[in-house]
Amino acid sequence: MAQFWKPGTEKPRLVEDEDGGVIFLSSSYSSSSSGYGYVSIEKQRQRLPVYKYRTAILYLVESHATTIVVGETGSGKTTQIPQFLKEAGWADGGRVIACTQPRRLAVQAVASRVAEEMGVKLGEEVGYTIRFEDISNPDLTRIKFLTDGVLLREMMDDPLLTKYSVIMVDEAHERSISTDIVLGLLKKIQKRRPELRLIISSATIEAKSMSNFFLSSKRRQALECEELRPRLEPAILSVEGRGFNVQIHYVEDPVRDYIQAAVSTVLLINDKEPPGDILVFLTGQDDIDAAIKLLTEEARSNGKNSSGLIILPLYSGLTRAEQDLIFSPTPKGKRKVVISTNIAETSLTLEGIVYVVDSGFSKQRFYNPISDIENLVVAPISKASARQRAGRAGRLRPGMCYRLYTEEYFLNEMSVQGIPEIQRSNLVSCVIQLKALGIDNILGFNWPASPSPESMIRALEVLFSLGVLDDDAKLTSPVGFQVAEIPLEPMIAKMILSSNELGCSDEIITIAAVLSIQSIWFSARGAQKELDEAKLRFAAAEGDHVTFLNIYKGFLQSGRSSKWCHKNFINYHAMKKVMEIREQLKRIALRLGIVLKSCETDMQLVRKAVTAGFFANACRLEAYSHGGMYKTIRGSQEVYIHPSSVLFRVNPKCVIYHSLVSTDRQYMRNVISIDPSWLTEVAPHFYQQQRHNPTIH
Ligand SMILES: Nc1ncnc2c1ncn2[C@@H]1O[C@H](COP(=O)(O)OP(=O)(O)OP(=O)(O)O)[C@@H](O)[C@H]1O
What we know:
Helix content: 25-40%
Number of domains: 4
CATH architecture of the largest domain: 3-Layer(aba) Sandwich
Domain Helicase C-terminal: 254-438
Number of strands: 24
Shape: globular
Structural class: alpha/beta
Pfam families: DEAD, HA2_C, Helicase_C, OB_NTP_bind, WHD_HA2
Oligomer: single chain
Number of helices: 24
Bound molecules: adenosine-5'-triphosphate
Radius of gyration: 26 Å
Organism: Gossypium raimondii (Peruvian cotton)
Low-confidence stretches: 1-39, 690-697
Strand order of the largest sheet: 7-6-8-5-9-10-4-11
CATH class of the largest domain: Alpha Beta
Keywords: ATP-binding, Helicase, Hydrolase, Nucleotide-binding
CATH superfamily of the largest domain: P-loop containing nucleotide triphosphate hydrolases
């Protein structure tokens, strides 16, 4: 039976609701001071809705193995609950309180804020860990923020996560693959560690279904038999109240071009509304670059009112320093406009933001196990996302949210929650992680939402062909274990390992770094011809991967110049990020015993290494019509080379792509030409059926 907690009288009491299905607990709220300095911050803390629930939260965590906390955006869940736990002694005796987030940026931001509230240095009592960056101290850190992906990696060394006393899985509504694996594994760990406490929190989670997940049928039976402590049925706490009011505005009629609509809305706010920064949600780097260009042009032609705009992009491909600009205070008389992907959707507090503009779209993965094709598609967001986006306003003062869709659409057509990522993704990375954690029966794993068996089988098949799994579906040694250790998609990891044998690791690490970001080209709305000309300067006949090597060399020769990038339509921010990732990959490669070696001009070796990782994405040319129609060799799916590729209209006989984007057709992005005979060489099992198919050879 689920439990709800409401503030009320001094002593906790149980109250049943009308249908008798839910228990309400009431309690007073504690206003006891935390004992930490900084009075003004302390006052801010006390004003947050969650503060009234301090005693309730601590009581529920003490008495229940799992507590589900649902509270409005900005009510203080992320920043306050870990502090309440610390104050109540959950980090005594060297234990650590963990709080996971789906995104790196949120991890860094909330860790900094909590360290500031506690008056401690970040990296000591309060720390964080994200992929490639550990700002925590094993001896000192008592509250640790981390991505759920990093928590999974920690399980490889410490399967029972013994150092943690409480693990708070925040923004659980996001249902990323890592969150779902973490939830499944934590449920297992709880059986072995009854003293471990879990908190699942979100503004928009379906609390009852999450509660049912943690209350398995066996547990229900156990509950009927005996009174257990801590109570195994999860408690649900509903934190009422929100920070400040956010007024929602909808468009009257559907918009045709959301980039143009977003830009017009920003200009309208700038003209008509009082001071305050603006946060715009678009879908990806291309959109953001295009919107910035359009906004800059329109603001310029708009005259003096728009001269005070400071326009900043925000997406995962930016360097840390560039992302940090969004946190810098807005100079007097200016207005900041942050144009972001959904990385700013959860947990972030940007001080000056008063206005949010929500396009209603985000880039989402969709995988079809039948065709074995995964697309990154611009798709409508869910109501849960829309609420999170609106919740970025109203955190420090009242705000407004402009939704670029109609109210009718929001009420009647928008889905309540998004589809869990595990049900719409290629599961290759997920399977290898579970295998590395010793979970052999993957189909029988207790998922919060089950992935399709077809997707699982496809993933097992690819991993087997990559040489990562053996006949018994166990990790191979050393390849399987090495691939599992590289924190990148397994195909990239395998490409890196193969490059070691082929003697081109220096080049492949550069390629891996470029493939890890969205695009290194500057999106050029209205300047397509100039962009195409710039591409021709670097274009390699072998394809995009080799073109990246030419660009990388040019960038180094220019002295890493932003001017050089500008002149060549290359995104300077993206190139800096490539350099950053490349350095990190170099360190990992060294750890795995990979010696960096260049193949100089022998690009055949580079193409072979790419094939060794990405053979599953091989396609052959079927017809020259429509600019060149290809079919995937395994699934016979119709695909085309994306116009952004240097191989567009070149149409080599056989190619390998890195990813697909779906618009009017399935387009291959980042394409390299290969010799088809390499496929049976590197992946004989995968291409067994086609062995006798003359079109491959
Ligand atoms: N960096 C910051 N600077 C100033 N105030 C902040 C900062 N971070 C948080 N706050 C304040 O604390 C409040 C609570 O933030 P917190 O992230 O804990 O809320 P939350 O309930 O977890 O929200 P969400 O569900 O949106 O993540 C914010 O609304 C804001 O008033």
